[in-house]
Amino acid sequence: LKQGKRYLYQKLHMYHMLLQHHMEEGDDLAVLDQVKQHGESNPNLWLLALKYFSDQKDPGHLQTLLSWMMDTSVPIPPLQVVAILSQARDLPLSVVRPYVVSQLKQDQAHIDKEKDEIKKFQQDTAKMRAQVTALSSKAMVFQATKCDLCSHDLDLPVVHFMCGHSFHQNCISETDRECMTCGPEHRHFVALQSSLQAKASNHELFFNQLETATDGFNTIAEYFGKGIFKPVDDDDDENHVAESVGSNERFSNEY
């Protein structure tokens, strides 16, 4: 009968029931095996196993489980793990310390990486703001000597784009209103911006993601990071200026 239960749970992919069955049987090795095989797709198995092993006097299997969690990207918040382990009365701190230290190091590395990215984005933003100001207030001098399409020497008539690229008039179509080099990237960002704006108005999607997320804070941080929660302010005028002087503008020099 027990073998039949295990077979049925396995066939129906009821891994939490199979894990519970191994716990009732006291088969610790089978519990570890189930978590290792199916824990990535079923994070709750890790939580059940943590609770099970934290109640045992011998912390050996718990140490094994925690070491696996340190070596794999388990989608479980560390605070939730610590909350489960804190309920064990006789669990020594030495068992939990390596996991906590490992998580703190990972978090610090992640913070340092995010700081570097923020610094880079701030520098890029400052550079783009300076370019927008220069394009909207100063005359632009075109000094290109080669066509950016055919790579031959430029000779009149020539078409210059505000992004700095220049082409023979014969190399591009009369109807082309954006730079052939920057155009695809420009259209990509315009489409991305439109997608984010559409996503911002879909409140139901946001709350559904928030309810089903393992870590709701990460979901909110992702929305903030993409600027979806950004209020409408005077920056929109600056964005409009940036678009008006972007790669869509062309200047013809036929003389």
UniProtKB/TrEMBL annotation:
Composition-biased stretches (Polar residues): 245-255
InterPro entries per UniProt: CHCR_PEP5_VPS11, VPS11_C, Znf_RING, Znf_RING/FYVE/PHD
One cellular component (GO) term of this entry: HOPS complex
Alphabetical GO biological process terms: endosome organization; organelle fusion; vacuole organization; vesicle docking involved in exocytosis
Coiled coil (residue ranges): 104-131
Family label: Belongs to the VPS11 family.
Protein name stated in the entry: RING-type domain-containing protein
Organism per entry: Aphanomyces astaci (Crayfish plague agent)
